[in-house]
Design a protein that fits this description.
Blueprint lengths: L2 H4 L41 H10 L2 H14 L2 H7 L2 H7 L7 H10 L8
Length: 116
């Protein structure tokens, strides 16, 4: 695994559209950040190959990190290209999402909020 595989959490992400770059389906297209970087990782360069490795072979924390980026930054159709609703439901409690976005996704996916 290269050095990017070891980086699985970005503490700078604090708003889901704040630094979004690109529009539309951006799988592997040129972006402001660089050639072949996926647009739904606005704070660092992640290729589709790196993304797929983390998604399918990464730790549960790495999977949560990449799926969190999908739900924060990716276009609707691009999200479902990579994951299913059931996969998102399964990992939902560990996703790093702002509370308003977590609530919206919870409603869309029909996920019950945990009672504290």
């Amino acid at each position: 695994m290269d050095s990017r595989g070891a980086v699985w959490r970005n503490p700078k992400t604090n708003g889901y559209t704040q630094s979004m770059q690109g529009t539309g389906s951006g799988r592997g297209r040129d972006t402001v950040e660089g050639k072949d970087s996926l647009y739904f990782f606005p704070d660092q360069k992640i290729t589709e190959q790196e993304f797929l490795h983390l998604l399918h072979q990464g730790t549960s924390e790495q999977r949560a990190w990449v799926i969190s980026h999908l739900l924060r930054y990716a276009q609707w159709d691009d999200i479902w290209t990579y994951v299913t609703r059931d996969e998102v439901r399964e990992i939902f409690p560990t996703l790093d999402l702002p509370e308003n976005l977590r609530s919206a996704w919870g409603r869309m996916l029909k996920i019950e909020a945990a009672v504290s």
